[in-house]
Design goal:
elongated; Calcium-transporting ATPase, cytoplasmic domain N; Rossmann fold; alpha/beta; 234 residues
């Protein structure tokens, strides 16, 4: 009916010169203590109500955190939720490092600070407010169930909405890199050993051709072992 309604945190209402309401502030504090994120609804210059928002932690999230740690990674919860809610979620999934109440630009700053310390940073996100941080991270992983903005900004899109898929992606990438290095090592070692023999006339052309064919088969067979990789998120 032509009435502008503001919905957001107190900082947004401050920008619009909406005064704080003691009763609403008490309700907000109670909701946050209960593990909810509280946002205000205001119109005509006054706060009219408080809306409680809560995230449901997936049953597999705690296992995903354990898998990250087993891979030698340090998981960090980077969220725009208030500190009380963030700490509760972190305790539920087994996280020890939490950075809460950050805006999208501050997420980028947090990642940049970690990179300045010499750390390689991977970011997993699914929302519009994660897009800039996904682009800034050394490796951005977007959940396939997330927004188009996050998917566009990320390096990898995880088809399943399961955080364990991120651990699977890292495990598979490490195994793939190991296979590539192994193939290169054996290819170089093979040629280093065979070329001097051929130069000295100790390796006839037929044997050399067979040896090269065997080398190619070995590299192909070693690469095909990656097909034995099994995801724990299935």
């Amino acid at each position: 009916e032509g009435t502008a309604v503001l919905v957001g945190r107190q900082s947004l209402l401050d920008d619009w010169s909406v005064a704080e309401h003691p009763g609403m502030q008490r309700a907000k504090a109670e909701l946050e203590q209960a593990g909810r994120t509280a946002v205000f609804a205001a119109w005509d210059g006054e706060i009219r109500g408080v809306i409680a928002v809560a995230d449901t932690v997936k049953p597999t999230s705690a296992e995903a955190i354990r898998q990250f740690e087993a891979l030698g990674l340090t998981p960090v919860l980077l969220t725009g939720d208030n500190a009380a809610v963030a700490e509760q979620i972190a305790a539920e999934v087994g996280l020890s490092r939490v950075t809460a109440e950050v805006l999208p630009g501050e997420k980028v700053d947090a990642i940049t600070a970690l990179q300045a310390e010499g750390r390689v940073v991977a970011m997993v996100g699914d929302g519009v407010n994660d897009a800039a941080a996904l682009a800034q991270a050394d490796l951005g992983l977007a959940m396939g169930t997330g927004t188009d903005a996050a998917i566009e900004a990320a390096d990898i899109t995880l088809v399943r909405g399961d955080l364990r898929s991120a651990a699977d992606a890292i495990r598979l990438s490490r195994r793939t890199l190991g296979t590539i290095k192994g193939n290169l090592f054996w290819a170089f070692a093979y040629n280093v050993a065979a070329i001097p023999l051929a130069a000295l006339g100790m390796l006839n052309p037929m044997m050399a051709g067979a040896a090269m064919a065997f080398s190619s088969v070995f590299v192909l067979g070693n690469s095909l072992l990656l097909r034995r990789f099994r995801s724990v998120a299935t």
